[in-house]
Amino acid sequence: MPKNLETSIDIAAAPDRVWAVLADPRRMPEFSPQCVRMIPIGKPKAGVITVNLNRDGWKFWPTTARILRYEKNSALAFRVSQNRTVWTYTLEATEDGTRLIERRDVPNGTTWLSSTLVNAMLGGEEAFEESLVGGMNESLAKIKKAVEAS
Question: SUPFAM superfamilies attached here (predicted)?
Answer without folding.
Answer: Bet v1-like (SSF55961)
